[in-house]
Amino acid sequence: MEKVVFRAIALLSLALVGVLVFQCGKKGTKAKTPVELITGTWRVSRVLLNGNPDNTGNYSAFRITFQSASGNPTNYNVIPGNAPAKPNINPANTGPWALTNNDTQIVLDRGTPNEIVLAILELTETSLRIRFKLPRNVDKTEPEYTFELVKVQ
User: Fold this and answer.
1) Long-range contacts of range 133-137, CB-CB < 8 Å, 24 or more positions apart?
2) Are 77 and 65 in contact (CB under 8 A)?
3) For residue range 39-74, what is the model confidence (pLDDT) as tens digits?
4) CB 138 within 8 A of CB 89
5) Superfamily of domain 34-151
6) What is this structure's pTM?
7) What does the alpha-carbon distance between residue 93 and residue 143 come to, in Å, rounded to a whole number?
């Protein structure tokens, strides 16, 4: 009986050592921060205008790139293509970006007359869904757009 108990303990110990060695050999995968997830180039997969599909424009060439350095947002760049609407109102199509409101909003051109807030509705490694309203000084009807974006790189 002692041999059986000894063997059982030995086998359990060996199994425990094997599990520990296997787990220690794994590299911990750290979850990406919102800045890391947003950083990159995005293309449009679908645009909604006031909740309805916007079929009036060609968004196929539209791209927005968010850049970062050392885990902090730096600049964004927009290539509007033939898109009739874009999530920035800066005529230069480039400027600083930041995350606000507990990482639920992207602010473009913060503190400038071109400032615009993009609400983050969804964010994964491959998809970004944002909603924004064009200000009255840009469009007096204040249309609300939802851009569903797919990461290009």
Assistant:
1) 134/85, 134/89, 135/89
2) yes
3) 999 999 999 999 999 988 899 999 999 999 999 999
4) yes
5) Domain of unknown function DUF4822 (2.40.128.540)
6) 0.79
7) 20
